[in-house]
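Appendix B. Raw example, untouched.
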Amino acid sequence: MEEIIKNVKFDKNGLVCAVIQDDRSQEVLMVAYMNKESLIETLETGKCCYWSRSRQKLWRKGETSGHVQAVRSVRIDCDGDALLFRIEQIGGACHTGYQSCFYRQIKDNKEFEIVGTKVFDEKDVYKT
C-alpha cells in the first residue's frame, strides 16, 4: 500500500482526481476527488470512498442511497495525478437519479439535451 500511495501526486489541497468508469459498459459515470485517507479506505475495502470538497469530510459512496461502487480495477495515469477506477455500480451513480453524472449533452452549441438514463427518483432516496 505504501508503494502505491507514494506514487500518487496529491495536489496542494491533498487531493487527487478519480475518474469512475463502469467496468462492463465502459461508460464514465462520475469524477470525484480522493485524499490519502479515502484512497486507502477504497483500496482496503474494495468500495469507493471519496473526499467531499463541499462537506469537507469523507464520502462513502452509497452511505445514504445504498448505491455503492465495488472496485474491479484501479489505474494511475502517467503523471500520477489522476486515478481511473473501473467499478461495478449498484444503483445509479449520480445524485440526480441518473446512471451517470454525464447525462447531458451539448446540442448545437446552444442547449443541453438529456441523453442519460434515469434509474431512480432522487426525491425518494434523498428525503430533505
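End of appendix B.
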